[in-house]
Design goal:
Elements (H helix, E strand, L loop, with lengths): L2 E5 L13 E4 H4 L4 H11 L8 E6 L5 H14 L4 E9 L2 H10 L4 E5 L11 E7 L8 H13 L2 E5 L10 E5 L2 E6 L3 H10 L2 H9 L14 H12 L8
Parallel strand pairs: 3-4, 3-5, 4-9
Antiparallel strand pairs: 1-7, 2-6, 5-6, 8-9
Length: about 240
């Protein structure tokens, strides 16, 4: 795998909060803006080489392009395995669950929560630690300091990855696993809630429901769980 290093200059507006870094899409599309921030994440981590990283987002505008960039930076920095939601999709709770379930080192989640999406709207990126939760302030402070001093970033010279086909892909020392975005989270829900009771109640007409995902990442999860697993009337989601 060929690694190329690019010289860069810092941006002065990359201070992350507890929900990561959120800016307009066009800010993230600036030359090396995303690359700087993601490289600064790796510059702020210790002992991650050869370990697993979860990657996915809420599907808003720029999600796919950002994931391809992050794959190349992660590969260049020595990550051993990337676990990516099919289509580049993972809700934040699903990503958190996958980090814990597969004992990943951490995860990069692309989400701006309830903020509007689109080419003129918002985009977000955050780092989650090995317990599935948001990075602590100590890490985000170090990350911010690294964004102010960054002078180069690294990219693996590899082709874009097919995000739509569930598969394991081997690239030299890197394994890329494209997994079902919904299955692991749905399984978790069956362990938390009494699906038989809910399913029987829906079948008996004791429960009716209408769920509006508001064009958001929750849609695929709700459709599979509520309609396919619990038996709500098709179109309830």
């Amino acid at each position: 795998m060929q690694i190329k290093t690019y010289n860069t200059t810092p941006y002065d507006d990359q201070k992350p909060g507890t929900s990561g870094l959120r800016k307009k899409v066009r800010v993230f599309q600036q030359s090396a803006y995303l690359e700087n921030f993601v490289q600064a994440i790796f510059n702020s981590l210790d002992d991650f080489q050869g370990k697993s990283l979860v990657l996915g987002g809420d599907g808003r505008y720029f999600n796919r392009q950002a994931i391809q960039i992050i794959i190349k930076i992660a590969a260049a920095n020595g990550i051993g395995e990337l676990i990516i939601g099919q289509g580049g999709l993972l809700s934040t709770p699903a990503a958190s669950n996958i980090i814990r379930k597969y004992q990943a080192f951490g995860g990069i989640v692309l989400s701006a929560s309830h903020n509007p999406g689109g080419p003129d709207e918002d985009f977000g990126i955050k780092y989650n630690v090995s317990n599935g939760g948001p990075a602590p302030e100590k890490f985000t402070d170090a990350l911010y300091q690294n964004t102010k001093t960054i002078s180069e970033y690294h990219l693996a010279e590899i082709d874009d990855v097919n995000l739509d086909q569930i598969a394991d892909i081997q690239l030299d020392g890197l394994t890329i696993r494209i997994i079902d975005s919904v299955a692991d989270y749905a399984q978790l829900m069956t362990e938390i809630f009494d699906f038989k009771l809910i399913r029987d109640s829906i079948a008996a007409g004791l429960i009716s429901l209408r769920f509006d995902a508001m064009h958001a990442i929750t849609g695929p999860y709700a459709r599979h769980i509520l309609e396919e697993l619990l038996g709500a009337v098709p179109g309830s989601v």
